[in-house]
Description:
The chain is of the alpha/beta class. The chain has one domain: Alpha-Beta Barrel (TIM Barrel). It contains 10 helices and 11 strands. It has helices spanning 33-45, 56-61, 63-71, 91-109, 131-137, 189-194, 197-209, 234-241, 247-257, 263-267, and strands at 5-12, 51-54, 75-78, 115-116, 142-143, 164-166, 169-171, 176-179, 182-185, 215-218, 259-261. The strands form 4 sheets. Strands 1, 2, 3, 10 and 11 form a 5-stranded parallel beta sheet that branches. A two-stranded parallel sheet has the order 4-5. The protein has a two-stranded antiparallel sheet with strand order 6-7. Strand 8 and strand 9 (182-185) form a beta hairpin. The chain starts with a strand and ends with a helix. The relative contact order is 0.19.
Amino acid sequence: MEYNLNIFSIDLEDWxxxxxxxxxxxxxxxxxxxxxxxxxKLLKQTNNHATFFVVGEIAQRHPQLIKEIAKQxxxxxxxxxxxxxxxxxxxxxxxxxLLETKEILESLIHKKVVGYRAPAWSVxxxxxxxxxxxxxxxxxKYSSSVFPFKTFLYGDNKANRFYSKINDLPEIPxxxxxxxxxxxxxxxxxxxxxxxxxxxxxxxxxxxxxKKPVIFYIHPREIDPDQPKxxxxxxxxxxxxxxxxxxxxxxxxxxxxxxxxxxxxxxxF
Length: 269
């Protein structure tokens, strides 16, 4: 058993929110409840807590699920209204989206929502310089929106790998490590599914040895092998579906190995 304290987060979005084009998919099949309840049960069994970054339309469609997450002591934070990319919005459009989502969530949990994660890490100092200023304006305490590793979809290799401030707002990125001067993502999503568990433990220990927490993250769809399938390129299909049928067993190992808390609790926001 490892006794280092780390952070766990869930991007509470349904299977159809993870589109590559950035345009919403119309569907009548909603699958968010079962995998989320499975994650909640595992968190309870392991006496762990997490931050749930909630898409507003999910909260509108499943208000009891959001209330139950909060009731079990987990943090509720914002993940936009419809999971649309931030860099496709204007500053005013983002502010409207932010306030609508915040109002929806706070009306359900009767607590202030203080955290935000951009859908698909869709922010940057260059494309959305107003993003952190807007969060500050509306009393948000932190963002976890910059992915410090460049991919063909998102990310920035020059971004700070650890807690830092952008426009006076704490920015708390998902964890990466460095190997032979190259950044290595390992703490969530595709990377959590791709890497064997001993590799995840190796990178986690390196971060913890620096007296820093690992920020783990996952999406409920990543433990749902029966979700509808997109028509994707081979590369995108590999990224999107690889090891989905084995992710939950890896998640069990993770949450039995590490003690994890919400971002809000770890940093005392």
